Amino acid sequence: MKSSVVYYSYSGNTDKVAKVLVDWLKCKDFTVDIYRLKPENEKRSFFLQCAEALQGKRAVLLGKDNFDLAGYDLVCIGSPVWAFSPTPAVNTYLDKMLNADDKAVILFTTYGSGTGVKKCINNIEKRLKKKGISEIYNFNIQQAKVDNRDFVIKTIKDKIGSFLFKLSERT
Ligand SMILES: Cc1cc2nc3c(=O)[nH]c(=O)nc-3n(C[C@H](O)[C@H](O)[C@H](O)COP(=O)(O)O)c2cc1C
To answer: Among 12, 69, 76, 155, which one has the highest count of C-beta atoms within 10 angstroms of its own C-beta?
Structure first.
Protein backbone atom coordinates (compact mmCIF):
# COMPACT_ATOMS: atom_id res chain seq x y z
CA MET A 1 0.00 0.00 0.00
CA LYS A 2 1.39 3.33 -1.07
CA SER A 3 0.48 6.64 0.53
CA SER A 4 1.28 10.29 0.04
CA VAL A 5 1.30 12.81 2.91
CA VAL A 6 1.37 16.42 1.71
CA TYR A 7 0.94 19.31 4.11
CA TYR A 8 1.68 22.91 4.91
CA SER A 9 2.82 24.10 8.30
CA TYR A 10 3.78 27.65 9.23
CA SER A 11 4.69 27.31 12.89
CA GLY A 12 5.28 23.56 13.13
CA ASN A 13 2.08 22.13 14.63
CA THR A 14 0.78 20.48 11.47
CA ASP A 15 4.31 19.24 10.81
CA LYS A 16 4.30 17.40 14.15
CA VAL A 17 0.94 15.77 13.42
CA ALA A 18 2.03 14.85 9.88
CA LYS A 19 5.06 13.05 11.32
CA VAL A 20 2.94 11.04 13.78
CA LEU A 21 0.58 10.13 10.93
CA VAL A 22 3.55 8.99 8.82
CA ASP A 23 4.88 6.79 11.66
CA TRP A 24 1.44 5.32 12.15
CA LEU A 25 0.94 4.60 8.44
CA LYS A 26 4.34 2.90 8.35
CA CYS A 27 3.30 0.72 11.30
CA LYS A 28 0.27 -0.26 9.22
CA ASP A 29 2.57 -1.36 6.38
CA PHE A 30 2.09 1.65 4.13
CA THR A 31 5.02 3.10 2.27
CA VAL A 32 4.84 6.87 2.66
CA ASP A 33 6.03 9.76 0.53
CA ILE A 34 5.97 12.85 2.72
CA TYR A 35 6.14 16.39 1.40
CA ARG A 36 5.93 19.74 3.21
CA LEU A 37 4.67 22.48 0.89
CA LYS A 38 6.89 25.55 0.70
CA PRO A 39 5.25 28.72 -0.61
CA GLU A 40 7.10 31.61 -2.14
CA ASN A 41 6.72 34.98 -0.36
CA GLU A 42 5.22 33.42 2.74
CA LYS A 43 3.33 36.12 4.63
CA ARG A 44 4.47 36.60 8.23
CA SER A 45 1.75 38.97 9.40
CA PHE A 46 -1.23 37.32 11.09
CA PHE A 47 -3.60 39.78 9.43
CA LEU A 48 -2.21 39.19 5.94
CA GLN A 49 -2.30 35.44 6.53
CA CYS A 50 -5.96 35.69 7.59
CA ALA A 51 -6.85 37.97 4.68
CA GLU A 52 -5.24 35.68 2.11
CA ALA A 53 -6.85 32.57 3.58
CA LEU A 54 -10.27 34.23 3.74
CA GLN A 55 -9.97 35.29 0.11
CA GLY A 56 -9.01 31.76 -0.91
CA LYS A 57 -5.66 32.96 -2.27
CA ARG A 58 -3.30 30.54 -3.98
CA ALA A 59 0.42 30.53 -3.22
CA VAL A 60 3.24 29.94 -5.66
CA LEU A 61 4.89 26.77 -4.47
CA LEU A 62 8.63 26.30 -4.41
CA GLY A 63 10.22 22.95 -4.97
CA LYS A 64 9.29 19.93 -7.00
CA ASP A 65 5.88 19.11 -5.62
CA ASN A 66 4.41 15.80 -6.49
CA PHE A 67 0.99 16.71 -7.85
CA ASP A 68 0.49 13.44 -9.71
CA LEU A 69 -1.21 11.00 -7.38
CA ALA A 70 -1.48 8.08 -9.80
CA GLY A 71 -0.07 5.01 -8.13
CA TYR A 72 -1.04 5.95 -4.57
CA ASP A 73 -3.65 4.00 -2.65
CA LEU A 74 -4.10 6.72 -0.07
CA VAL A 75 -3.66 10.49 -0.18
CA CYS A 76 -3.33 12.57 3.01
CA ILE A 77 -3.49 16.37 2.96
CA GLY A 78 -2.81 18.55 5.99
CA SER A 79 -3.31 22.23 6.73
CA PRO A 80 -3.51 24.55 9.68
CA VAL A 81 -6.91 26.28 9.91
CA TRP A 82 -6.44 29.94 8.98
CA ALA A 83 -9.49 32.19 9.30
CA PHE A 84 -11.85 29.18 8.98
CA SER A 85 -10.08 28.22 5.77
CA PRO A 86 -7.20 26.18 4.34
CA THR A 87 -3.92 27.98 3.71
CA PRO A 88 -2.87 29.39 0.31
CA ALA A 89 -0.25 26.66 -0.14
CA VAL A 90 -2.85 23.94 0.36
CA ASN A 91 -5.26 25.78 -1.96
CA THR A 92 -2.65 25.56 -4.71
CA TYR A 93 -2.04 21.89 -4.04
CA LEU A 94 -5.78 21.15 -4.20
CA ASP A 95 -6.00 22.96 -7.54
CA LYS A 96 -3.07 21.15 -9.06
CA MET A 97 -3.38 17.61 -7.77
CA LEU A 98 -3.90 15.10 -10.56
CA ASN A 99 -5.21 11.56 -10.91
CA ALA A 100 -6.80 11.55 -7.49
CA ASP A 101 -10.39 10.79 -8.52
CA ASP A 102 -10.36 7.16 -7.44
CA LYS A 103 -8.34 7.73 -4.28
CA ALA A 104 -9.25 7.67 -0.64
CA VAL A 105 -8.30 11.00 0.91
CA ILE A 106 -7.58 11.80 4.54
CA LEU A 107 -7.67 15.47 5.49
CA PHE A 108 -6.06 16.62 8.68
CA THR A 109 -5.89 20.01 10.30
CA THR A 110 -4.48 21.62 13.38
CA TYR A 111 -6.27 24.54 14.95
CA GLY A 112 -6.36 26.93 17.89
CA SER A 113 -9.79 27.70 19.33
CA GLY A 114 -11.60 25.35 16.97
CA THR A 115 -13.73 28.06 15.39
CA GLY A 116 -13.99 27.33 11.70
CA VAL A 117 -12.52 23.82 11.63
CA LYS A 118 -15.74 22.46 10.11
CA LYS A 119 -15.88 25.27 7.60
CA CYS A 120 -12.28 24.62 6.59
CA ILE A 121 -12.91 20.88 6.15
CA ASN A 122 -16.13 21.57 4.20
CA ASN A 123 -14.25 23.97 1.94
CA ILE A 124 -11.64 21.32 1.08
CA GLU A 125 -14.18 18.49 0.79
CA LYS A 126 -16.29 20.48 -1.66
CA ARG A 127 -13.30 21.03 -3.91
CA LEU A 128 -12.22 17.39 -3.72
CA LYS A 129 -15.74 16.27 -4.62
CA LYS A 130 -15.63 18.53 -7.68
CA LYS A 131 -12.54 16.57 -8.71
CA GLY A 132 -14.55 13.36 -8.46
CA ILE A 133 -13.15 12.23 -5.11
CA SER A 134 -15.85 10.72 -2.93
CA GLU A 135 -14.05 8.83 -0.19
CA ILE A 136 -12.93 11.55 2.21
CA TYR A 137 -12.14 11.27 5.93
CA ASN A 138 -10.72 13.77 8.35
CA PHE A 139 -9.17 14.23 11.74
CA ASN A 140 -8.35 17.46 13.51
CA ILE A 141 -5.97 18.19 16.38
CA GLN A 142 -5.97 21.24 18.62
CA GLN A 143 -2.61 23.01 18.77
CA ALA A 144 -2.35 22.38 22.53
CA LYS A 145 -2.38 18.62 21.86
CA VAL A 146 0.12 18.28 19.02
CA ASP A 147 2.95 17.26 21.36
CA ASN A 148 0.80 14.61 23.00
CA ARG A 149 1.75 11.71 20.74
CA ASP A 150 -0.59 9.23 22.45
CA PHE A 151 -3.52 11.60 22.00
CA VAL A 152 -2.69 12.17 18.32
CA ILE A 153 -2.38 8.42 17.70
CA LYS A 154 -5.66 7.74 19.52
CA THR A 155 -7.42 10.42 17.44
CA ILE A 156 -6.01 8.96 14.22
CA LYS A 157 -7.10 5.46 15.25
CA ASP A 158 -10.58 6.61 16.30
CA LYS A 159 -11.21 8.69 13.18
CA ILE A 160 -9.59 6.68 10.41
CA GLY A 161 -8.48 3.35 11.88
CA SER A 162 -11.43 1.27 10.71
CA PHE A 163 -11.39 2.88 7.29
CA LEU A 164 -7.69 2.08 6.83
CA PHE A 165 -8.34 -1.49 7.87
CA LYS A 166 -11.05 -1.77 5.18
CA LEU A 167 -8.73 -0.14 2.64
CA SER A 168 -5.99 -2.68 3.29
CA GLU A 169 -8.52 -5.54 3.01
CA ARG A 170 -9.68 -4.16 -0.34
CA THR A 171 -6.28 -4.21 -2.04
C1 LIG B 1 -3.34 33.46 10.30
C2 LIG B 1 -3.90 32.46 11.29
C3 LIG B 1 -5.27 32.25 11.32
C4 LIG B 1 -5.81 31.30 12.21
N5 LIG B 1 -7.17 31.07 12.19
C6 LIG B 1 -7.69 30.11 13.00
C7 LIG B 1 -9.09 29.81 12.95
O8 LIG B 1 -9.87 30.37 12.18
N9 LIG B 1 -9.56 28.86 13.81
C10 LIG B 1 -8.74 28.20 14.68
O11 LIG B 1 -9.24 27.36 15.44
N12 LIG B 1 -7.40 28.44 14.70
C13 LIG B 1 -6.86 29.37 13.89
N14 LIG B 1 -5.50 29.62 13.91
C15 LIG B 1 -4.63 28.78 14.75
C16 LIG B 1 -3.88 27.74 13.90
O17 LIG B 1 -4.79 26.97 13.13
C18 LIG B 1 -3.06 26.79 14.77
O19 LIG B 1 -2.15 27.52 15.54
C20 LIG B 1 -2.34 25.74 13.94
O21 LIG B 1 -1.98 24.67 14.78
C22 LIG B 1 -1.09 26.28 13.26
O23 LIG B 1 -0.48 25.25 12.54
P24 LIG B 1 1.07 25.28 12.07
O25 LIG B 1 1.89 25.40 13.33
O26 LIG B 1 1.26 23.97 11.39
O27 LIG B 1 1.25 26.44 11.18
C28 LIG B 1 -4.95 30.57 13.08
C29 LIG B 1 -3.57 30.84 13.06
C30 LIG B 1 -3.04 31.75 12.17
C31 LIG B 1 -1.56 32.01 12.13
So the answer is: 76
